[in-house]
């Protein structure tokens, strides 16, 4: 029960932080930090997959409503929520993940968290930016935006782990 | 039947994923600006309220900048007033008093602004109560900004030039040829003017104005200047236009209310 309340609280905080603070940060039009997928990253390991998918859907829908885009964030977050279990399997050490732990730096170290964040962020950004552009004419400039924004988002998310979401 | 059921049982996560993605893609494909505005319309009051609260904080930090801008605007307006009042004759003053003027400006502030997306929108802090309705033009002191998409009681959403769905008839100042102004999604500083035929003489730096062919904008509002042009598609120019409006630093705008818009539209519909 406590964990559910915590995740709902995090959902609200992450969305508000994204639309009120992060959406105002833009560096020369190419680097946009999307940190709201932090919510997907931090969901507990044991969360049933259908709940992960529905949470991803709700997260994307909330972002779409705030930014006035139709379904683009939704498609990207659902994808991110879908691939998360596979990535977790891929990144698992030999012993797997212990119960009573969460996917955080605190439990699995900086390097693990960096890899985990980077993979999900890149998948999410690829989907989001290309859906937004929806044409191949701007293929390379979009790719540049994906790469630069992924770097910015990932570093912001990893840094936030030390300051805001410490435990 | 049983195998089918088992398939569903084993793959329900994949199926749920596909279902959710189908919903999202339906939203994307169906989501033209009209439907989107209806969907967002439900939320506009809520998000508008949150954004205007946050804007209060942001405003505090940019007070100095805003002050300087306002002073600048003040002087410009005063200069223009001088110019106009000296050129006005008594007859036109009387018609103004009788309420026959065509355009009325509603001063408004931007409470939320996007510049880096493909489909950017602005939120203004004026709505139906203050006389801001659908399809009204929005300008700033620098130049043209966009068109009101939809308004609620106290807020309104604007499609700026830098939205891929924006279309406007615009003309070249020196020879009055009109084309379609659009945005190609690459940079918030530039837009594209197309459908200018190849035989027209163009010069770089020439000013682009609104044509006045639509009922939304009066004729002659400055949009931008010609940055470069090419004849790639055969018969028509592709003109790159540097926009006068700096969307990233936009703060105060004016909404144009055209008192004769309805009359003009009704007439145009009748004979279409």
Supply database-style keywords.
A: mainly alpha, Arp2/3 complex 21 kDa subunit ARPC3, 6 helices, globular, B: alpha+beta, 2 domains, 6-stranded antiparallel barrel, 6-stranded antiparallel beta barrel, 37% helix
Note down, in words, how this protein is organized:
The complex is a heterodimer of chains A (167) and B (272). Chain A has 167 residues and is mainly α. Chain A has helices spanning 2-20, 38-41, 49-67, 72-91, 105-133, 139-163. Chain A has a single domain (2-85, 96-163), classed as Arp2/3 complex 21 kDa subunit ARPC3 (Orthogonal Bundle). In chain A, helix 3 packs antiparallel against helix 4 (72-91), helix 4 runs antiparallel to helix 5 and helix 5 packs antiparallel against helix 6 (139-163). The two termini of chain A are 18 Å apart. Chain B is built from six helices and twelve strands. Chain B has helices at 2-10, 12-30, 33-61, 63-87, 90-97, 261-270; strands at 103-113, 122-124, 137-139, 144-151, 156-160, 168-172, 178-182, 190-197, 207-210, 222-230, 236-243, 252-258. Chain B starts with a helix and ends with a helix.
Question: Summarize this, please?
Answer:
The complex is a heterodimer of chains A (167) and B (272). With 167 residues, chain A is an all-alpha fold.
Topology of helices and strands:
The complex is a heterodimer of chains A (167) and B (272).
Chain A: H1 2-20, H2 38-41, H3 49-67, H4 72-91, H5 105-133, H6 139-163
Helix pairs in contact in A: 3-4, 4-5, 5-6
Chain B: H1 2-10, H2 12-30, H3 33-61, H4 63-87, H5 90-97, E1 103-113, E2 122-124, E3 137-139, E4 144-151, E5 156-160, E6 168-172, E7 178-182, E8 190-197, E9 207-210, E10 222-230, E11 236-243, E12 252-258, H6 261-270
Antiparallel strand pairs in B: 1-2, 1-12, 2-5, 3-4, 3-12, 4-5, 6-7, 6-9, 7-8, 8-11, 9-10, 10-11
